[in-house]
Write a structure and sequence with these properties.
The protein is mainly alpha-helical. Helix content is about 70%, strand content about 0%. It has helices at about 10-15, 35-45, 50-60, 65-80, 80-90, 90-100, 105-115, 125-130, 135-150, 155-160, 165-175, 185-190, 200-215, 225-230, 235-250, 250-260, 260-275, 280-290, 295-305, 310-325, 325-335, 335-345. The model is unreliable at about 1-10 (pLDDT under 50).
Length: about 350
């Protein structure tokens, strides 16, 4: 597996520079010592039994970059592969979470996409979640990693596995050419709010085009829906959807739900929700992963791990506001054992 750790994508750097700072729950550990951490992990797995509490005390409170240093130091000190040791000494969702946490961010996303396109059926929700919540730079890095690690082409695998308009939307996302804000536009957002980068006239034109075309045609290959989604930044898309609601007398989600079903409906709704607010969309994904009978552990792990250093604190806020309970409380009631303990350590109980 490639050892390079993906850098923070440009969008997040700009958000930090211009005041719209995303907040993760995991930060670099002050006074980090890879040698000391390696000794703790070695002791936790040596002999009879495993000290899961000691493992969590290290792994959940180190950044991804620090975990990569621990992996290298562990092998240098003890001549053993840390991941293999963890896989041997742990099990179930706890083991899956540990392996995910020790995966470089770009590799982890690439592996999730690979798993989503292989096996019985396609995990369309995972494809949408990753491809529409990552920046252009991140998607380019993911595609490169995908080819290097899995000896396959991400776009080709999606094309082979998906179908219809849904496939077209995903392939469009793979091109990593969605319109993103420039430095000057982020500065305007910081100074004047999102309206500072919105072209209302264009939003009205796009809304009119969507209305004229009709909801039923949004899932066809000739639709202007994909062109608009791919060619507008997040704030411009929000404005378009606002104008559509004014003209149509209903919001765009209602329009989609009234005319579509299955994967197409889910795909179109996800695209709209991401445009309206990535953090709220991910909060909804977390809620659905724990709603009802059973838990979608794969989604729960993927979002908690992949967003832990990006915007998980913000996602927690969205979750609490929308569902009138905390993400930690939901995890507390829906998971168990060491799996629950490590998730709560990453999420935080506040």
């Amino acid at each position: 597996m490639a050892s390079a750790v993906s850098g923070v994508a440009s969008e997040y750097e700009r958000m930090k520079q211009y005041g719209n700072v995303p907040h993760g729950t995991v930060r670099p550990f002050p006074g980090f010592n890879a040698e000391a951490d390696s000794k703790v992990l070695r002791k936790a797995m040596k002999g009879i039994g495993t000290d899961e509490k000691a493992i969590i005390s290290v792994v959940a409170y180190r950044s991804n970059a620090q975990r990569q240093e621990i992996k290298r130091m562990f092998k240098t000190m003890f001549g053993k592969d840390l991941i293999r040791e963890l896989e041997s000494e742990t099990s179930g969702n706890f083991r899956t979470t540990l392996v995910a946490l020790f995966s470089p961010a770009t590799y982890y996303d690439a592996s999730c996409l690979y798993n989503a396109t292989k096996g019985a059926g396609t995990n369309e929700a995972a494809l949408i979640e990753i491809l529409f919540t990552r920046t252009n730079q991140e998607i380019r890095e993911i595609a490169k990693m995908y080819k290097a690690e899995f000896h396959s082409d991400l776009e080709k695998d999606i094309a082979d596995d998906a179908s219809g308009h849904f496939k077209r939307i995903l392939i469009s996302a793979c091109q990593a050419k969605r319109t993103e804000l420039t430095d000057a536009q982020w500065q305007r957002v910081a100074t004047n709010g999102s309206e500072g980068v919105v072209d209302r006239a264009r939003a009205q034109q796009d809304a009119q085009a969507l209305l004229k075309e009709g909801e039923a045609k949004w899932a066809t290959t000739e639709s202007c829906f994909n062109e608009i989604v791919a060619g507008r930044n997040q704030f411009q898309l929000r404005a378009t959807f606002e104008e559509y609601a004014k003209m149509a007398g209903k919001d765009i989600e209602t329009a989609i739900e009234g005319k579509h079903k299955g994967d197409i409906k889910d795909g179109l709704l996800a695209i709209v929700k991401v445009a309206q607010g990535r953090r709220l969309y991910l909060a909804e994904r977390l809620y659905r992963s724990m709603k009802g009978v059973g838990t979608d552990e794969a989604t729960l792990i993927r979002i908690v791990v992949s967003r832990s250093e990006v915007d998980l604190a913000d996602i927690k806020e969205c979750y609490a506001e929308k569902y009138n309970t905390t993400l930690a409380a939901a995890v507390e009631s829906d998971t168990s054992g060491d799996f629950k303990k490590i998730l709560l350590a990453i999420i935080g109980r506040d």
